[in-house]
Write a structure and sequence with these properties.
Structural class: alpha/beta
Shape: globular
Largest sheet: 7 strands, mixed
CATH topology of the largest domain: Nucleotidyltransferase, domain 5
Strand order of the largest sheet: 16-17-15-14-20-21-22
CATH superfamily of the largest domain: ATPase, nucleotide binding domain
CATH architecture of the largest domain: 2-Layer Sandwich
CATH class of the largest domain: Alpha Beta
Number of strands: 22
Length: 498
């Protein structure tokens, strides 16, 4: 018996098959092998055709099913993880009306800010745990304002994972956790926020029916079964946004536990049982996968848009063959990158800077002294310093981490990245060889057997290494202080030019 998990990202779609008894990964596939394109017709825009996600899911499924250790007939459950905050619009015939406005699109910031004022800060803090900001509800408001004829044809509004579940089952529904990431959920009333719907003038019928995060979310239809090579009737047992799912994959469920990821964006995701949101303009609060009405589990999320995207940009621009080569080059340079500071914020507005667009910046480069190795290290340090800065903001939410768990992705494969964060925070960084797709597959066992079996999967299969703080702290602190001074100058300049 096996489970299959999907991770629907903005760069690629991943599929993973795990053994239902041991949790061991049997096959993993990624489609496409490079990266999916993002359409940006204007600087603040970011869109993708939802059908592209489905086509790559089909290809990834076919690839894992070709593994000799895997039989499609043995698949007994499906889990879905997906890029958060996207907007998919369906008409009454379940046709997609426009390309999805995805997570890093920042066109709706002003509309979100207007709604924050209209609704009131106190309501947002107590009921939404967020400002509307640049999330799904605000993106829908942009469509309503800028594309009114298209808006009138919308029957249901979906998140990316809801769309994939629809393609698998033919059923249109969402989850409470999904509505919280869309900033459409009232945590106090335990229902869709009427006040937010009224503020934007949305009809409540745009919101699909709600299904639980774990449990029956529909069954694979005959059409999808034929396309994918899976048994008709296979149940969808789990669905969550990529960051809550990444935390799940790292066995992060309880207050005080923290997950970090460094993919296209960088994320700090900490669990609390508090419904207070003191820094809601900078730090987001969403229902975690195990959140219940009678037992709050809130994921405090701080996002850094310019993380892995900055490292990827350097790799492509400098035509470096691999991230491993970049990591090796960074090892040739001393702590502090000989004075170069990189501010990796060239991927749209940054929530932790109150949705300001800071942009990518390099400071203190010297053409006769610095080379590509310095840029590799400075980029890693700039990303690591951004994590450290973000953790400082998280402390205002009474989160004081002792251990941080992270996946074994390209950035955390670098000891420069891991050791820099560990040294400046005083926290160990535990690295686990797991992925969002593997976590989504394993989550099926939670729906069927509970949490204990899932936690055994992580402890038995995944731990790789632990980065510990370097006892020689001053060089790291000096480099961070120089970087931080430059950041404050950038923020001051940016404020003056607005």
């Amino acid at each position: 018996m096996i489970y299959i998990g999907y991770d629907i990202g903005s760069s690629s779609v991943k599929a993973a098959v795990v053994d239902a008894k041991t949790g061991k990964a049997l096959a993993v596939a990624t489609s496409p092998s490079n990266e999916m394109s993002i359409t940006a017709t204007q600087p603040s825009f970011a869109e993708q055709n939802p059908e592209i996600w489905w086509q790559h899911l089909i290809r990834a499924t076919h690839e894992v099913l070709q593994n000799p250790n895997v039989s499609g007939e043995e698949v007994k459950g499906i889990g879905i993880a997906y890029q958060m905050h996207g907007l998919v619009c369906l008409d009454a015939g379940h046709n997609v009306l426009r390309d999805a406005i995805i997570w890093c699109d920042s066109r709706a910031i002003d509309l979100g800010n207007e709604a924050y004022v209209g609704i009131g800060a106190q309501y947002c803090k107590e009921h939404l745990l967020n400002s509307p900001g640049n999330f799904t509800a605000s993106k829908l408001a942009w469509v309503k304002k800028q594309q009114p004829e298209l808006y009138r044809n919308i029957d249901k509004v979906l998140l990316p994972g809801d769309y994939i579940a629809f393609k698998l089952t033919g059923r249109v529904h969402t989850t409470v956790a999904g509505l919280t990431e869309a900033i459409l959920w009232d945590f106090t009333a335990h229902q869709t926020s009427k006040k937010l719907l009224d503020q934007f003038g949305f009809d409540k019928d745009l919101i699909p029916d709600i299904v639980p995060t774990f449990g029956d979310q529909g069954e694979v239809s005959a059409q999808a079964a034929h396309i994918l090579g899976l048994p008709q009737g296979t149940p969808i047992l789990y669905r969550a946004g990529d960051q809550p799912n990444n935390a799940l994959a790292l066995n992060v469920f309880e207050p005080g536990e923290i997950a970090a990821t460094a993919g296209t964006s960088g994320v700090i995701y900490a669990i609390t049982d508090s419904l207070k949101a003191p820094e809601l303009e900078k730090v987001n609060s969403f229902a975690h996968v195990n959140h219940r009405k009678d037992s709050a589990r809130i994921g405090k999320l701080l996002n850094i848009n310019g993380a892995g995207s900055a490292y990827r940009w350097l790799k492509n621009t400098a035509q470096i063959k691999s991230y491993q080569e970049m990591n090796a080059l960074s090892d040739l340079v001393a702590i502090g990158s000989d004075g170069i500071c990189i501010y990796p914020y060239g991927n749209g507005s940054e929530r932790m800077f109150e949705n300001k667009t800071i942009g990518y910046h390099m400071q203190n480069a010297h053409f006769n002294r610095h080379d590509i190795a310095h840029l590799c290290r400075a980029t890693l340090e700039g990303i690591a310093f951004s994590f450290v800065y973000g953790l400082g903001l998280m402390k205002q939410h009474h989160i004081n981490p002792q251990t941080i768990r992270a996946g074994n992705d390209n950035l955390f494969q670098s000891h420069v990245m891991g050791t820099t964060i560990a040294t400046l925070t005083g926290c160990e960084i535990e690295i686990y060889n797991t992925t969002g797709a593997i976590g989504a597959a394993r989550a099926c066992t939670i729906a069927l057997l509970g949490y204990d079996s899932f936690k055994d999967f992580v402890s038995q299969n995944d731990h790789i290494t632990t980065y510990t703080p370097d006892p020689d702290i001053p060089p790291y602190q000096q480099a961070y202080d120089i970087w931080l001074k430059g950041l404050h100058q950038l923020l001051k300049t940016q404020k003056q030019t607005r």
